[in-house]
Hints:
Elements: H1 2-28, H2 34-39, H3 45-55, H4 61-73, H5 87-122, H6 127-141, H7 144-158, H8 174-208, H9 211-218, H10 223-252, H11 255-260, H12 266-275, H13 279-307, H14 309-317
Amino acid sequence: MTRYITRRLLLTIPVLLLVSMVVFTLIALIPGDPALVFAGGEADPEAIEALRRHLGLDRPLVVRYAIWLGHVLRGDLGKSVRDGRPVREVLLLKLPVTVELAVLSLVVSWAIAVPAGVLAAWKRRSVLDYAATTVALAGISIPNFWLGIMLIYLLAVNLRWLPPSGYVEPWIDPARNLQMMVMPATVLGTALAALVMRLLRSSMLEVLGTEYIRTAQAKGLRDRVVLVRHALKNAMIPVATVMGLQLGGLLGGAVITETIFAVPGIGRLAVESILTRDYPMVQGVVLFSAVAIVFVNFAVDVSYSFLDPRIRLVEERR
């Protein structure tokens, strides 16, 4: 097992290096002169040129990348142009908010998708199956921004059950925090649940047709035992892949949802940084999002060996 994890971890190193190259190059190729943006349109040319030298923009792209990568490896992502704060400090401040939203969204997603997917596969071509499939298609089709606006209009404006937007730290007021996170977590969770439910249904149908499931049924095991203990675990492998990709995206920042509900997470930070042309902050957000996706996929690869020991055995034989 240790050998399997070590190999997977070593494979992430060239991926992270390639990600850093892509992130730096894309930001560097943005049209316009960053020095002109930072100094302002009315600054004199000499001041702009001095700022370009100070920022290292007069050096070749390869040299600038090497310097930037050296700073990144030491944990220095630069400073924000807007307020001069270190980018790393701002990201660490916003990260708990986005992590909380991601975790709550996954809870909502799994609470809906797993029971619905399993029952839809078990009761194939029944009314329950058709109803679950219809709801899943609706969840995939409805845009997040529309669902968020409708929830605000219904639950906050009309019924006044929940606050329309904002955020309170859970350690200050847990009840208020949960009230404010219900709607954004529901918006993200329902979209994830629709995709996971359809994938889990397809995977469960494939597993339920295998011989070991028929053997378990022939032994007289109860349906719940067959579904949970024998079928669901093997059916979760493709679902884990999709959930890993979705979790990486959530940790990178749910841009639209955080903007609609004024959640001060990484997604909203990305929007504000783009609008103010805060290039170091944009670069830090994009790099963090990419690294989060890489490491989440690494965790998914490791989880395969727990869901299906055959994967681990094949890797160890190589």
